[in-house]
Amino acid sequence: MGSRTVTGPRPSLTARNDGGRMSAETIEIPAPETNAPVNRRRASWRVRTWLLSAALIPVGGTAVTAQNTEGMVPACFRTGGGALEICRDGSEAEGVFWAPPPCAFARGVQILRLGSGSTAGPLQVVYHGETPLGDRRGRESCEARRATDPMDSGAVQSGRNLEQLATTMPAAEPRLWETQAEPAKPRSRRVRRGRDAATEPEPETEFGVAARNPTVVVGRDWAGEAYYHVFLISTVGTGDTARRVQIQARTYDFESFEVRSRGPDGGVAWVPFTDGAGRRRESVAPPAAVLDEGGRPVVGNCASERLDAQGLSGSISVVGQLYHYVYTDVMPEDCSEPPPRRRTALYLRTSRDLGAARVWSAPRTLMTALPPGLMVRAAKAKGMDRWALSYSCRRPANAPGGPVPDICMQYSADLSIDALAALKLFSAPVSAQRSPAYLGLRSGGDGSGRFGRVAHYWMTDRYGNLDVPDSLSAKSGFLTWLDRLAPRRDGSAVSTLYGRPVYWGTWTVRPVATR
């Protein structure tokens, strides 16, 4: 992508609700910030990568200080059981990863290194983007779009980059996208009274694909498997009975995909979705829900309105040839609460074989009473036997900029699950979502001090564990996130999703210096 500068008015920050009917634009709109705005000015930004430097003053609580090479005293916080620290000294690299055209967007951008060991392989980029237009017009010359319907905003896009272009979005194509089959009349009642819908697959789980929130990890390559597996989230059901369900696809090359379905004998059937050129086949069997070891579908804990359905978003990491699926879901006891008040729990499921008929273990609860709508990612840390955990948060009130949205990062004391579960994510009160473990991101925003840092992901190796581009080998991680408040490159405010930029940033963790 060439360099250019685009200046436009500050976008509208009002969530749309046309005619009293919710639209897909309302999904995951950041909560209003409570900090006082800084100097108001016309928002502008450059559509290219750059290095920013801005000194941040220390904050209280658990923060410590350390002198850097330029003589500044950055704010640092300790993590990893007190043995590590991350400093917000303004030297971390940040920039624009992609400034999409007005008919495109990207959420949850995962960058996957396909090589192994000393062999630097290509970088595969996978993300949740827009459903392709029927006429397949080029995106650079397309008209502005808005997600006015859930079916208008769910596709898996993928593209491949060279290592040298790790900080730019590659040319990508929609590979899996949602379709709504006309459901056949079930042979039995749709809802069985007196029985929790999560206890067995209902016919309705066979219909509707929402190719959202892709999470990619390699199959058992140590046993000769050549597939990569893509886990997705579908929303099934109507009215206030909608529920999230996990579905699955696999691929050799990230161009043609097979979707997990159910064969005539009730077993697993892998059905081709594409013909190898990104074109959808006409006859696609409906996907089947991923099952756990007890034969139960992996579904969200709570039923809700279709656009309010929550749960199952997370990440998958391979440690010791064991897959660890760490994700958030609503606490079951909060299902009767309105969606904005439903607290979140963090769960773990494990697997030895992603291609098995019953993939995941039963869920293990790691944390409870977390804020509603929390996004959490977990993976083995780069070069360490520790878990790294990133999550959406807000800075403390006395931090630079006030309690603005940020992304927080913590490391566990070791690689045990108990050490991961022992991390404390937020200061009291937890509902305020404030943490001293924030990274101090600087990119994005609407120019008035408000930011929309959502749907973050990071760069991983093929096992879902932290990796970085070779050009940033001294860094500990590489993040991407979507800012739904930052100006679009065309200067308009047509959509709070389409056309909004995706940013990238790094962080560095180091042993606490002996003083």
UniProtKB/TrEMBL annotation:
Taxonomy, superkingdom: Bacteria
Start and end residues of each stretch annotated as Disordered: 1-29, 129-156, 177-206
Biased composition (Basic and acidic residues): 133-149
Name of this chain's protein: Uncharacterized protein
UniProt source species: Methylobacterium gregans
